[in-house]
Task: structure prediction
Amino acid sequence: MIRVLIVDDAPVIRESVSVAVEECADTIIVAGQEENGLSALAWLEENYADLCITDIRMPIMDGLQLIREINDRYPWMKCMVVSSYDDFQYAKQSIQLNAIDYILKPIDEDLLYDALMRAQSSLTQERNRMAADLILRKLPHHHDMMNRWLDQIRTLNAATLPLLIVDTLDMLEHWVEGEYYRLNALSNLWLRSIIEELTTEQFTLELDEGKDLGLGEATLPVSRLRSYFRLCAVRRLEEGAYRLMDTMRGARDQPTIKAIGQIKRYIAEHYCESINLQDLADQVAMNKSYMCTLFKQETEMTIWSYIVGERMRKARDMLLQTKDRIYEIAGAVGYEDVAYFSQLFKKHYGMTPNDYKRRMDA
Result:
């Protein structure tokens, strides 16, 4: 997700630019709106953004000075100018300050879309380059972690995978040295490094970039920056690891893939309820015993183990995203007995809910 800060002294313009931006792509969202450069900098002290779209002429602090300040204080951000003034000097100064583009009002939506796509591409490329540099410098000193991953994928050992992912995240976080926005690109490249190590086994898999939709509000407070990007990275590593294991199991026939997918979707939609195996079998038009056997053969785990895993992942997200108490989280994922829930959580993640939260927030 690319978070955008819009700065313009005219409320109507701010709102119209906001609407135009969010209509361009579902991976670009408006995180904030401010009326001048000074208030924009005050907003950035409290909140995170990847891109600033600013007017030029504004009271108190104009757009050019704002871009200079952003370049100095927030070097990971990109800037773009949207102005009513077709002034060569303004445009020239903007480009000299590394602005992505200078777009005239009224805004041509095609030009805005092209500029946003360039900004997104530039951000992605820069972060991928940073990640590649880190991998090249750090990986030779962390072959033990790489070997742990390779062993788990080759042996299809999902039991200790959650703890491995937390350990990996701790390592990657240490690498980024507080620049948490790098974690997503770094997690992607870590997974690709694993795939490269497996190519000798005729192992091929393409991973997409992953999405953080639903993991946070449009406005991301600085106080939540670390936990937010860590949660995105956990999701990325988790999804990638399970896909790696699925691929390692080999190609499966299409009817089987479809049936397993239906079962997983039903569990994802009803994880907080009491799931009856017969009801689940009815969803895929199978005999209950055959369904359980097929699921175990294809996933290396029982349906009950998968249900518990899904509930634990949902509980993990709530634990890190909300201030709900443990008993509230337990109830939300289908457990009335808090002690039993904590026992299952510890078995799945290798630590109690409170210990897990402390480690993720430490």
About this structure: The first helix runs from residue 11 to 24.
